[in-house]
Each structure stands twice: as structure tokens, then as C-alpha cells.
Amino acid sequence: MNEASQQNLEAESLLTSAEVAKLLQVDATSIINWSKKGYLQYYRTPGGHRRIRAADVVAFLKQRGMPIPPTLTGLDERRLLVVERDPKELKVVRKVFEDYAQNMKATYTQSIVQALLDIGTVKPHLVLLDSSIDDVFEMTSELKKRGIDVMLMVNEGQQKDFEKRATEAGATGVLARPLHAGPVLNQLGLVERA
To answer: If exposure means fewest CB atoms within 10 Å of the residue's CB, which of 85, 107, 117, 173 is most exposed?
Structure first.
């Protein structure tokens, strides 16, 4: 792993035992021992070599209270993209999620074009789409094909009208305004604060 690739690690990046050892500043035999003991999850290539997901390295470090190297920082962070055309509603949605900033990275936009750019750069785990967006069902379907979960935001009372079409398009849910954080946090695998 060269310096350039270290800067571009993603949660699903596969690392060798030697690469993990270099990141953690330990000997490669420590990585092998930790994986043999089940402390560090790994996979075997068809040739029998160990590969360790970058996200599993972060989980291992967190479980043991060890410092996370800068290269691995943020790999376990959940990412949310909110696309809301109405500026007032966007402000409300920001307020709903502001208390969860330490658990996830939320990106907000009113522009469909900016949303498409953000999908490529932010790589969200979940996209919240304003149901008034033109071609919202087609967009939902295309995002789902690319492995991105989508939830649609609708005005109160419209939920039933949208649920069937949204489900057919691949949406994981339809949320009525005013929006509540719970279903979104649940979808992201985060726990809502009491």
C-alpha cells in the first residue's frame, strides 16, 4: 500500500496483514495472531492470503480503546444525503439531525444536480429525497440499483399515496413531515438518543 492509496481508503477496502501492521505500527505477526484469536475479522483469498476490511480494523481498535490512525478516521462514519427543495423544510431537517453530528455525516442540498455530484463524492449510505422532485421514483430506483438506500419525505397525509410506488421503486421507507430522526437513524444502524 503506497502513500496515495492510504489516503483513499474506504470502509470496504481490503488490506493485507502487513498493511494493517504498518497502519497500527505493530509487527505483522501481531496482526496474524489477533486474527487467529478472532479479535480481528479477516477473509482468505483463493490463494490463502489474509485480507482485512478497513472498517474491521476500525472496529477492532474501538473495541480495545486504541487510537485510530488518521488514515482510518471516519471509515465507520455513517453518511446521509438529504435532498429537499423547500428551503424552510431543509432548515427543519437540518435541525432534526444536528444532535447526531457526532454519529454521522449529513450533507444537505436543494439542488438535484448537486445531489448527484454529492452521491459520487459523499458516497451516502442513505439518501432522503423530497417526494416533489421530478422523476423521484426513477431516481429512487437508480440509486437502489447502485446499493444506496433511499427514503422519501412526503407531506403529512400523502404517505399512503406514495408508499406503494415508493416500495416498487426500491425505497426503504416513506417518511411524513414533520420528520423524526428515529426511522432514519434506525436505517443507518444508529441508535436514537432518549
So the answer is: 117
